[in-house]
């Protein structure tokens, strides 16, 4: 991972799959190249192979199941997303939770496969204990703000500052802020508060001109880090 971390979760909107998803990925790749910023795309499992063949960006799965290879109909173990071309995966998103006692085992499997991981938590108290399990990054997202357009950096800045304090104890794990981030100002504030990147979804996926939104996010992330 390279700083600042910009993670865009495609979720499963009508432009999250098919040609629309590929066209969006290409527009985002152009911005990534122009500003020399790595932009991670977390895409539906059915699109990992197609998008990873079309763009030179880190493509993540949105979820992997903590089950071994074998008789698990419908499951998506990490081995399958790596084979499809994924470079990493989200884990424990608020819309796709896994049991806390399964997180350590799934993170070990992911590491052994050479995949990156972004572990999602909903409150700062979980940042340190889950940080000890050594995901590459922790994404903190108060679920009540997800998709609202009310950013965590404005509505609950203390969530970020307290998470920053907690992540320092874990050492070697990045902190990403998400939930409700919808403007460049939100991005700037999140990084100014100490986050090392941002995670977004609807602000990009539901925008009329998503590439302009992504560019605004990238510019403000670079400004907040003194790189623009």
From TrEMBL:
Gene3D superfamilies named in the record: Aldolase class I
Principal cellular location given in the protein's record: cytoplasm
Protein name: Triosephosphate isomerase
GO molecular function, one term: triose-phosphate isomerase activity
Assembly description: Homotetramer; dimer of dimers.
Binding residues for substrate: 9-11, 146, 180, 201-202
UniProt-listed HAMAP family: TIM_A (MF_00147_A)
Role this protein plays: Involved in the gluconeogenesis. Catalyzes stereospecifically the conversion of dihydroxyacetone phosphate (DHAP) to D-glyceraldehyde-3-phosphate (G3P).
Family: Belongs to the triosephosphate isomerase family.
EC code(s) of this entry: 5.3.1.1
UniProt keyword list: Cytoplasm, Gluconeogenesis, Glycolysis, Isomerase
Organism: Saccharolobus caldissimus
Enzyme class, spelled out: isomerase
Pathway: Carbohydrate degradation; glycolysis; D-glyceraldehyde 3-phosphate from glycerone phosphate: step 1/1; Carbohydrate biosynthesis; gluconeogenesis
Top-level division of the source organism's lineage: Archaea
Organismal lineage: Archaea, Thermoproteota, Thermoprotei, Sulfolobales, Sulfolobaceae
Annotated catalysed reactions: D-glyceraldehyde 3-phosphate = dihydroxyacetone phosphate
Subcellular location: Cytoplasm
GO annotation, biological process: gluconeogenesis; glycolytic process
Catalytic center residues: 93 (electrophile), 141 (proton acceptor)
